[in-house]
Amino acid sequence: MTIRLRPVPRSGAAIEVDVCVNKRKTYTSCGERGGGTIAETLERGLAKRGLDITLRRRNCLGPCLNGPNLCIFPSVTWIAGAHLGDVPEILDLLEQLLNEQSAPDVAAAKPPSTSSPRTAPASSR
Ligand code: FES
């Protein structure tokens, strides 16, 4: 499996994953190499982990020779040559991306106000 990881933009856009399940006899395709089973297993894993990520089955993402292919949005992270055994790692990646996207933006956070002096609680005086 090859992953071309890209940073998740802080756009607030939902994370979605496209899985190619295309099955055709005339040319190599992801579905012929397990894309459908990967999609089903990923779907079950997303539900089991309670991850709010939409999975879409697609009929071709373009780079057919490298399949089974997946693409994660909005970061446009490509996963090529996936195998069924890669699903736990893909789920970990999706969970990580979801956590990173929902984490507070540290750079935009305001420092705590220093205008009012801290006082000890009444019980410790
Ligand atoms: S058949 Fe999967 S990318 Fe084309």
Task: Note down, in words, how this protein is organized.
It is a single chain. The protein is an alpha+beta fold. It has a single domain, classed as Glutaredoxin (3-Layer(aba) Sandwich). Helix content is 25%, strand content 17%. The protein has helices at 35-49, 87-102, and strands at 2-4, 16-20, 54-58, 70-73, 77-80. The chain has a five-stranded mixed β-sheet, with helices on one face. A hairpin with a 3-residue loop joins strand 4 (70-73) and strand 5. Helix 1 packs across helix 2 (87-102). The model has no long low-confidence stretch (mean pLDDT 85). It binds FE2/S2 (inorganic) cluster (FES). Residues 20, 22, 29-30, 60-64, 67, 69 line the site of FE2/S2 (inorganic) cluster (FES).
Structural class: alpha+beta
CATH topological fold name: Glutaredoxin
Give the integer mean of the pLDDT values.
85
- The CATH C-level name is Alpha Beta
Summarize the structure.
With 125 residues, this protein is an alpha+beta fold.
Give the topology.
Blueprint lengths: L1 E3 L11 E5 L14 H15 L4 E5 L11 E4 L3 E4 L6 H16 L23
Parallel strand pairs: 2-3
Antiparallel strand pairs: 1-5, 2-4, 4-5
Helix pairs in contact: 1-2
Question: Which features would summarize this protein structure in a list?
Answer:
alpha+beta; globular; Glutaredoxin; 125 residues; five-stranded mixed β-sheet; single chain; binds FE2/S2 (inorganic) cluster
